[in-house]
Specification:
heterodimer; A: 180 residues; alpha/beta; Pyruvate-ferredoxin Oxidoreductase, domain 3; 6-stranded mixed beta sheet; 6 strands; 39% helix; B: 360 residues; Rossmann fold; 5-stranded mixed beta sheet; 14 strands; globular
């Protein structure tokens, strides 16, 4: 069983990252739960979701010690850094997350997703860059599954959306492969 | 259509209701179950013969459901805790008039307006009637997306079979969490047995009357006895519970809905530590699976009730066990969510305090 927390500001596409990941893993034939924080959240507020992945029945969808955390802003880092399981992996969007990381018993993957997105001339794909980095490093699902899931989610929307999503995913995955 | 889909609990209820032949829905928005109302608006529009009403209030919605039920429709309304309080008068009327209907309560923190976080504070309200008068509501408490899909259908079947309101008791987490779900095939509503008691126009026959005003106490007593006989049949026929690792256990955690998911995770943790602990999960809350629980107490003397409230179901546990076992309680109210680790610590402490390891 592996649990992942995705967290950031509302509007950064945090819930979309978790949803696409959850759908990809479901289509891989695994058990999953996707638990979003809901209700009072709004653009600019904090948003997070927890995705549990397992080959067996998942009992609790909540996590006290996630194996992975994908963090897109400083408040979320403060909230989740101490919770990550020993040996776990923390992914941060280092263009926005500037708080110093104090844990030395976890792996940290710093991805300057904000700057990378700017360079790709689409600031809205920084979540896809983070998702690409996360998938590439965690190996919890394949890039192909993520692309299929995103195609399903964005069905009926502009085809340019899928193109830019793919661009972001690839950029994130490449960044990790080059040894971030 | 037996495809696996990833869906939020509230939307699962909506889709499952339509597939179960629900053709009337009335509701008034409240978090954390707005997606259900949204889903019904869209689905009813796409369903021949389907009617969706966003009512002017919760009270109006439940009264519209009364009307639709009288006319023979499979009807549903939904809300969250404060809104369900408003519907109680209507639920009492449904019970009195023996009308089938499904009511969904996606519980949130309370009392009062409370908050929008998951809670189990409405157990008493759900299982003790909630409204005025001497009646019972069937209460089912699913704990997964798949169970929501399956039990929503069961809810409509029970409602029709027993001519009684059925409450689906969920909470914010059950409502918002997404899990893979495979829906049962839609039913053909023309295949349902005709509701000969329904009011659909009296052309060519004498009028029928459905009412709840019985000024003659003898007539009211007759109805109360009739309802009581029905409730006894229901209490015999439908109690349902899940048992997990209880066979060799010295201690069982008792929890339902979301709390049972968390408790099951805790049971797995303490099992890894070698503690002989199981889980008893009531699926029907009224009628309570008392006999099944009583059976467990033949080889178990310690029970830990875990609820997301200050102790409500624990009373039914004590009633079921009739003093045969020690009943302990741990609760987290107000919309806070415990983790399996937290519950595992509570179990661990209790296990050793009661000196249960010596029985191993």
């Amino acid at each position: 069983m592996k649990k992942t927390v995705f967290a950031g500001f509302g509007g950064q596409g945090v819930l979309m990252m978790g949803y696409a990941f959850a759908m990809a893993v479901m289509n891989d034939g695994k058990q999953i739960t996707y638990l979003p924080a809901y209700g009072a959240e709004m653009r600019g507020g904090t948003a997070n979701c927890t995705v549990a992945v397992s080959d067996e029945e998942i009992f609790s969808p909540v996590s006290s010690a996630p194996d992975y955390a994908v963090i897109l802003n400083n408040p979320s880092l403060i909230k989740y850094e101490s919770m990550i399981a020993t040996g776990g992996t923390l992914f941060i969007n280092s263009s926005l997350v500037t708080t110093e990381i104090t844990r030395d018993d976890i792996s940290v993957v710093k991805v300057p997703a904000g700057d990378m997105a700017k360079k790709l001339r689409n600031e809205r794909i920084s979540n896809m860059i983070m998702l690409g980095a996360f998938v590439s490093r965690s190996q919890l699902t394949s890039m192909e599954s993520i692309l299929n899931a995103l195609a399903e989610i964005t069905k009926g929307k502009k085809s340019s959306l899928m193109k830019s999503n793919k661009k972001g995913l690839d950029a994130g995955a490449d960044y990790v492969l080059q040894g971030a | 259509m037996s495809e696996k889909v990833l869906m939020r609990g509230t939307q699962v209820i909506g889709e499952a209701a339509i597939r179960a032949g629900c053709r009337f829905y009335a509701g008034y928005p409240i978090t954390p179950q707005n997606e259900l109302t949204e889903c019904m608006a869209r689905s009813m529009d796409a369903t021949p013969g389907g009617t969706f009403v966003q009512a002017e209030s919760e009270i109006a919605a439940i009264n519209m459901v009364i009307g639709a039920a009288m006319a023979g429709a499979r009807a549903m309304t939904s809300s969250s805790s404060p809104g369900i309080s408003l519907k109680q008068e209507g639920i009492s009327f449904l019970a009195a008039q023996e009308l089938p209907a499904v009511i969904v309560n996606t519980m949130r923190g309370g009392p009062g307006l409370g908050n929008i976080a998951p809670s189990q504070g409405d157990y008493f309200q759900a299982t003790r009637g909630g409204g005025h008068g001497d009646y019972r509501t069937i209460v089912i408490a699913p704990n997964s997306g798949q169970e929501i899909a399956d039990m929503t259908r069961t809810a409509f079947e029970y409602a029709d079979k027993y001519r009684n309101p059925v409450l689906i008791l969920a909470d914010g987490m059950m409502g918002q969490m997404m899990e893979p779900v495979i829906f049962p095939e839609p039913i053909d509503i023309s295949s349902l047995p005709p509701k000969t008691w329904s009011l659909r126009g009296a052309a060519g026959r004498p009028s029928k009357v459905i009412l709840s005003l019985l000024l003659n106490p003898a007539k009211q007593e007759e109805l109360n006895w009739k309802l009581d006989r029905k409730y006894k049949i229901i209490a015999r026929e439908i109690p349902k519970a899940e048992k997990y690792m209880t066979d060799d256990a010295h201690l069982a955690v008792i929890a339902y809905g979301t709390a049972a998911r968390i408790a099951k995770g805790a049971v797995r943790r303490v099992r890894e530590m070698g503690l002989k602990v199981g889980l008893f999960r009531p699926i029907t809350l009224w009628p309570y699976p008392s006999r099944e629980l009583h059976e467990l107490s033949r080889h178990m003397r310690n029970f830990l009730v875990f609820e997301m409230n200050m102790g409500q179901m624990v009373e039914d546990v004590k009633l079921s066990l009739e003093g045969r076992s020690d009943v302990h309680f741990y609760g987290r109210p107000g919309g806070t969510i415990s983790t399996p680790d937290e519950i595992a610590k509570i179990i661990n402490t209790l296990y050793h305090r009661q000196n249960l390891e010596k029985d191993s």
